[in-house]
Amino acid sequence: MSSIRLALFALVLFPAGVSAADAVDYRKDVKPVLQERCYACHGSLAQKSKLRVDSGANLLKAGVIVPGKPGESELVLRVSSENEAYRMPPEGHALKPEQIAKIKTWIEQGAKVPADDAQEPDPRDHWSFRTPVRPKVPEIANHKSQIPNPIDAFIVAKWNEKGLEPVKFADKRVLMRRVYLDLIGLPPTPEQMEAFLKDDAPDAYEKVVDGLLASPQYGERWGRHFLDIWRYSDWWGLGAELRNSQRHIWHWRDWVIESFNADLGYDEMIRQMLAADELYPTDSKKLRATGYLARPYFLFNRTTWLDEVVEHTGKGFLGLTFNCAKCHDHKYDPIKQIDYYSFRAIFEPYQLRTDLLPGEPDVMKGGIPRAFDCNLDAKTPFHIRGDERNPDKDREVLPGLPKFLAADGLKISPVKLPVEAYQPLRRAEIAAMYLKSAETKLAIAKAALKKAETAVAERSEFHAWKVLPARATHTAAVKELEQLKAAIADPTKAPVAFRGAVKSAESNVETAESKARPFPDTSTGRRSALAKWIASKDNPLTPRVAVNHVWLRHFGKPLVPNVFEFGRRGTGPSHPELLDWLAVELMEPTANPARKGGGWSFKHLHKLIVTSNVYRLSSSSANAEASLKLDSENKYLWRMNSMRMDANVIRDSLLHLASDLDLTLGGAPVPMAQQDASRRRALYFFHSHNEHNKLLDIFDNANVLECYRRTESIVPQQALALWNSKLAMTMAGKINDRLHAKLKDADDTNFVTAAFEMILGTSPTKDELAVCLESLAELRDALKNVKEPDRTKRARLQVVQALINHNDFVTVR
Amino acid sequence: MFQSRFIFCILLCVLCIFVAILSSLFSWCPMNRRSFLADSFRGFSGLALAAMLHRDGYSAEGKWAPPDGKPHFTPKAKSVIWLFMNGGVSHMETFDPKPALTKFAGKTIKEGPVPDAQDPEKLALARVTVINDANGQQRNKLYPLQVGFKKYGKSGIEVSDWLPHTGSCIDDIAVIRSMFTTDDNHGAQTQFHTGRHMLDGEYPTLGAWVHYGLGTLNENLPQFISMGNREYWNLKDGHYLGPAHDAVPIRVDPANPLDYGKPELPVSAEEQKLGFALSGKLNKLREKDYPGDSALDARIKSYELAFRMQKSLPELLDFSKETEETKKLYGIDRNETKAFGMQLLASRRLVERGVRFIQIQHGAGGAGVWDAHGGLKANHSKNCLAVDEPIGGLLKDLKRTGLLKETIVVFCTEFGRTPGSQGTDGRDHHIYGFSVWMAGGGLKGGIVHGSTDEIGFHATENRHYVTDVHATILHQLGLDSRKLEIPGRKRLDVDHGTAIKEIIA
Fold this sequence. Notes:
The complex is a heterodimer.
Chain A: H1 2-13, H2 26-37, H3 56-62, H4 74-80, H5 97-108, H6 150-162, H7 172-184, H8 190-198, H9 204-214, H10 216-229, E1 236-238, E2 241-244, H11 250-261, H12 266-279, H13 284-287, H14 291-294, H15 302-318, H16 337-347, E3 350-355, E4 368-373, E5 415-416, H17 419-422, H18 428-457, H19 468-489, E6 501-503, H20 512-516, E7 522-523, H21 526-534, H22 542-555, H23 576-587, H24 602-610, H25 625-630, E8 643-644, H26 647-657, H27 672-675, H28 694-698, H29 716-724, H30 726-743, H31 748-759, H32 766-782, H33 790-804, E9 811-812
Antiparallel strand pairs in A: 1-2, 3-4, 3-6, 5-7, 8-9
Helix pairs in contact in A: 2-5, 7-9, 9-24, 10-11, 12-21, 15-16, 18-19, 22-23, 22-24, 26-30, 29-30, 30-31, 30-33, 31-32, 31-33, 32-33
Chain B: H1 2-25, H2 31-39, H3 41-55, E1 79-85, H4 99-103, E2 149-152, E3 157-160, H5 164-167, E4 173-180, H6 188-194, H7 206-213, E5 224-227, E6 248-249, H8 269-289, H9 294-316, H10 324-329, H11 335-352, E7 357-362, H12 376-400, E8 407-413, E9 416-417, E10 429-430, E11 434-440, E12 447-449, E13 451-452, E14 459-461, E15 464-465, H13 466-476, H14 493-496
Parallel strand pairs in B: 1-7, 1-8, 4-12, 4-15, 5-6, 5-7
Antiparallel strand pairs in B: 2-3, 4-11, 8-11, 9-10, 13-14
Helix pairs in contact in B: 8-9, 11-12
C-alpha cells in the first residue's frame, strides 16, 4: 500500500525531468500498444491474474510499474523477457523493441498520464448493446418548412449543430429518376416522367412512391439487396458434383421477392428463414424460407459449413463478429470463445433435405431444399484454438447466447412435429405422385414385355432368351409398385427412395447408418428460440442493423459505417438519435399507423425515408463551399450522395430503356449459356461462386461468399463493356429506333433533347446540346458515303452510345 | 579564382552525370513519372481502396494512407513473370533427382532409406479439404524415376532430360528444393497465390499486392495481366484490396486480345472514335454541375485508359516485327510449344513496356494438366515439352536484352508428387516437399537452395512455405509487405513469409 502511495506521490511531484522533445506521450506511444496487445486479457473484458492495465491508475494500483524505475517495473520485465513462459503477451509476436523502449522511457520520465485518463468503459454499456428507446424528435426553429417528417428534424438538428447549410432540392427529373432506380431498380419511361412533371397536385410525388412500392419490381429490387446480405447463391461444385449450396435454392429467392412484395414483417422473415420447419412444419411455401440455411451447405466439411452459418447469422442480423471468437475470446466484445461454440450448437442438429414437389419425382429436376433437425443429440465440439483437429474432450457445449446480450439465456422447448412433416409420404399428393410414376413405369415395362414376347413367339424357341431383359424390367417395376404400396400403407417403414424427401449428404459425417435413419418426429426448438430472440423487440441490435442496411441503400452511405460491425471495434453512428428513432419506428410504427399486422414493415420505412426532404436534396455541391469545407465527406447529409448503379440496375436499365425487358417474376434461374440472349431481369441469372455472368461481374456483381455491400469500382473494363459489348450495342440500336419511331422527322436538337431525357433523365444544357450538335455534324461527315435517312440515324446512334457511356447513366444523381 | 570556378564546374558536371546515371539506372521509377502517378491508373485504383476503407469507418484510426506507389527501399527488380503449372509438377522428375527411388523401386517406404517418412506426426501439417477423396492419399510403394538427369552449366546442377532448354539456363536459375504447403488437394493452387488455405476464405494474390504497392510505368496498359485459363482456382486477385487490383485477362490474339476489347457489332473506327470523344466531352461538361466529384473524374480517366488499352494491346500482341530467330527461340515455330511460346514472347513485350506482374497459368482445366495420377511418364514428358523451349527462350531473350536484371521469372506449381506410385504408373499429390525456381531480378543463378530427404518425401533443410517465395519477390521489388497492411485486415506472420536471403545476390 505504501509503495503505491509513494509511486503516486512520485507521479504527481516529478512530472517533468526531460525536455518536451524527448518526452514520451502516454496517449500516443504507450496506451495504443497496451490497448492492442494487453487490454483483451487485462482490461474491461477480462482481468486475468486480477490485473488491469487499461489506465495509469490501474497500472500503479497493480504495482506493475514503478515510476522512474523501468528496471523494477514488472511490465517492462514481462514484455522484454526472452523466457517464453514469462513473456507477455503470451500469444503472437513479442512487442517491438521500439515499443518497449517507449514504455521504458515513459516510466523513466515518471509515467505521466493525462488528467482525464480513464479505464476502458464496461462493454455492456456500448451504445449498440443497449435497447433503443425512441428519442424525442428535436424542436427545430429554422428550416421549419423543410421538416415533413421526423427524419428531417434529426438531420436539421445536426446541420444546426455543425453550422451546415443544405443545398437546394434536386430537380424534379433528377428526383424522379432517383426514386425509380432506388425503389424498383429501373428508370422511369419518358411517359412516366412526363406524367409526373405535369402533375401539380401536392401529393404527386407521394403517389409515385406508393405506386412504386406497390409494383412487383419493388420486391425484386429490395429482395435482391437482402439476398446480397444473406449470400444467395445457386449451387456449385466440381463438374456435376454439388459441393456448395443446393439445387433449386431459387425457391428461397422467390420467397424473398414475394415476402418483400407482400411487406411481410422483417421479424417474421427472420423467424421463417431460421425456423419455418419448426414454426410451420407443413407449410411448403414458408419452408422455402429455410433456403437461408441451405445456402452454407458444404459437402466436405461440417465445421466449415457451420462456421459460415455462425459468422453470417451474426453479421447479417446482429452486426456482431462472432467469427472473431472462434479461436480465442473476442478481443473487443464480451463474446467468449465458448459463446462461439454455444451459438454453433443452436444449429448443430440441423441438416438439409429436398422435399419433392407433387408432379416431379426426380429430385434433380425439382423440389424445395429446406432445413430440418436431423440429429437431435448431436454434440458440438469445442475446438482448442479453433483447430478442428484438436477438440477439447472434457468440455460440454450447450446451445446458448452470450450472456451480455441474453441474460436469461435461450428459452428452448422441443417441437413435436405433425406426422406429414417427418413422413411426407403421408401427404396424399406425394403418394399419388409416386404411384403415378410407378404405374407409368410399369405400363411401359408391360408394353415392352408384350412386344418382346410377340417378337419371340414368331421365331424359334432358340430366341426365347431375348425376352429376358424386358421381363426383368417388368418384374422390377411390379416389385417397385408393390413396395410403394406397402410404404404408403405404412409410411413408418418407407424405404429411403419413397420418403417424399431426399436428404443431402451430412457433409463429411454422413455414414450408411445416417443415410437410412428416418426423419425425427421432433425438432429441438433451438432455432425457433434463436429466431424469436433475434426478432424480438428487446433485441438491441436487430432493428438497428436492419435500418442501417436500408438507409445505406437509399442514401449510398450508412449511418453506422461498417454495416456488419456494431460491436466495439466498429465506428459509431453519425446520427445516433436518428438511428434509434428509426429502429423503434420500424418495430412500432407511429408516423403511419395504417399498416396492418403490426410493425417491422420495410415499406413503411422506405416511404418515410423517400418522402423526407433530405432524400430530395440535390447531390451537387456546387455553390456550397462553406458546407463543403466543414463536412467535405457529407457525413451530415447537407446534400444527397451520388451512387453508382449496381450491376443489375445497369443491365436491366439498358434493356428497359430499349423496351426489351421481360418482367416475368420468379422461377428457375436462367442458365449461363442463355444469359446473353435472355431478356429476364438480371437477378434471375444463375449466379454461383463458379458461374457468374461476365458483364455483370465487371460492374461488381454480388460476391456470393460475402456481400454486405456492393463494391463501386471504376475500372477501364467497364468502359469497354459499355462501348463494345453486343448487349450494350444492341440496346443502343433499339433505343435509337424507339426515339426515331417516336420523334418521326425531328431535328437534331429535338432528338438530342429526347435522348438525354430518356437515357439520363435530364434535359441537356445549352453547352451539352452544342457539343452534341457539333459531333453530329462530324459524324455525318464521316458517314459521307451513307445515304439519308440512314446517315442521320447512324450518326445519332453514336450520340445514344455516348449517353449510355455517360457517367450519369451509370450514376444515380 | 578562375581555376576554382573551373573545378567547381567540373565537379558540377560530374555530379550531373552521376545523377543522370543514377536516374537512368532507375529509369522505371523516375521523379517525372511521379506526377503522372497521381492522376493515372493508380490514381483511381489506390484511391478506390482508400474510399472503400473509409466508407467502412476505418479511416477514423487516422494513421492509414494508401501506398504512394513508391518502393519502400531500393528495388532490384521492376517486373515479375509468374509461370504457374496447374496440377502439380513432380519434383523428382524435374529439379530434384532421387536415384534412391529407382534403387528401392517396388519396396514400401518402410523398407526404403527413409522408413519413418510417414509417421503420423510428420504428416500433421496437412489440412484436408476433401475428406476421403480418392486422391491426395499417401502412396507407400516407391516408384522409380521416369526420366534421366544431366548436369548443366558451370554450376553442374542436375536437371531432368525432359527440360534441356531450362537446363541450358541453369546458371541463371536459383532452384528451391524445399517447398511445402498444407492443402493436399488442388485448393493448393489458390494457396500458392495467396498464402492461405482455401478453408480460410479468400485473400489477395501476390500479383494484387504488387499491383497495389507499386505505381504504374505505362499509362497505356494495365499493370497486372494474366494469360491462360483460370478454371479451377478463383478468378479474382484483388479480394479485399478491391477489383481494381484484379489481373486483366488477355489472350495472345491481336484480333481479340481482351473481353470487350473491340466492338462486338460492326461499327467503323471513325464513328466509334467520334462517339467516344463525345462521351468524354459530355462527361467533362458535367464537372461544372458536380464540382469535386471524384467518381466523375475517375470515370473520365477510366474511359481514356480503356481507349488507349483498346489501341495498344493489338499492337503489343502483333509479333510481325519480331525476327524469325526470336520466334524460333520461343518455340513459336512448332505446334507443341507454340501456345506457351506466344504467351512468353508476349510477356517479354509486356515487361519491356513496364507491366509489373504477368501471371501465366499453364494447363488449366479440370484440376490441371500436370495432375498425373496415372501415366506420369507420358503426361510429364508432354507437358515439359510444351513449356521447356519457351522458358529457355524467355530466359535467353531477357538476358540478351538486359531485361533479366530487372525481371524476376518464377516457375512454380501447387505441390509436388508422391515418391510412391498411385496405380501402376502415376504419382499422387504431395505437399511435404517440392521444388520451384526463380531467376533474374537480382537473384543468384546456378544455385540449389534447400533439400528433401533421400526419397523426396519431406523438405528437410531450409524448409519454405509458399509465402517465403512471395516475400522474396516483394523484397526484390523493394516492397515491405508489412507496410502494405490494410486496417481491419490483420495479416499473420505466416502471411508475410520471410525472404529467402540465401538466393538473393
